[in-house]
Amino acid sequence: MGAAERVEIFPSDSLHGLRGRSPVLRRLMAQVERVANSAAAVLILGESGTGKELVASAIHRAGTRKTLPLEVVDTSALVPALVASELFGHERGAFTGADRQHIGAFERARGGTVFLDEIGEIPPPVQAMLLGALERKKFRRVGGKVEIPLEARVVSATHRDLRDEVNAGRFRLDLYYRLAVVTLRTPALRERPEDVALLVEHFVREAGHDGPIDELFSDAALAALAKHAWPGNVRELRNLVEATLALGEVPSIDASLEGETASAVQVEDPKDLFHSVLDLPYKRARARVLEELDSRYFERLMERSEGNVSKAARDAGLNRTYLIDVLRKRRGE
Known about the structure:
By secondary structure, the protein is α/β, with parallel strands linked by helices. The chain is built from 16 helices and nine strands.
């Protein structure tokens, strides 16, 4: 694959979590190039916010299927009863509320790629259906009798350790091997600190700011950001950049304030959070606390509900549609 083609894999207007020069990211990009033209199933592993969907998109766009559809199915955003319908489609009258025929992702892809995001959340009955479809290379719509060829390439992703899920009896071993013919891992942002400054610049430009970057982030502030653990990964960094722009708070070049900013950025222990922000300007302190609350709250909420969005919405007292929008935004969609 030539240099021009490599540029096409990660265009500047869709880099997000994949931009950078770190060795670990270069290695991932090389792996994407190698698997792009294969038909092998790919499983992408990585923490939340590391850009797994972007890797899936890059695999699709770099291969021979790039002119065909890329269908994305976020299994964590669907109630279990609807997962099979979204994957395989359904016939009219197949179940209560099915008042019309629905074409599923595998059929819509028409030989392209189906990306199954958060595959670890897929319910056991649908795991069996998916395994059967992958083995036979054909499937039926829910409630249907006609067998439809499965011609799409399957790329899946999860933030969970599927081997642990298999050992716990929550994920089928045979399906795991079907999905993980090739396994790729998206690096956490803390593994690529040299990319932080590049990402900050990208998100600032993406937000429409065309002034000098150092008007917002001094060298000392960028150095402090590079030392942060970033539990929310690239998504957390983007939120920080957007908050800085929205609040109109430009980090001071004063050394003492930069020291305070670094202290706030590097906090990992929640019990130290309030103490660390007390000397910051109010808007910045409030934004920092709310950012940390949202990051931890929604992560814990989805863990407690085992990925069931409807249950999570009930537990949190939130509208389900609103919660789905929040989760998608946090995943960078």
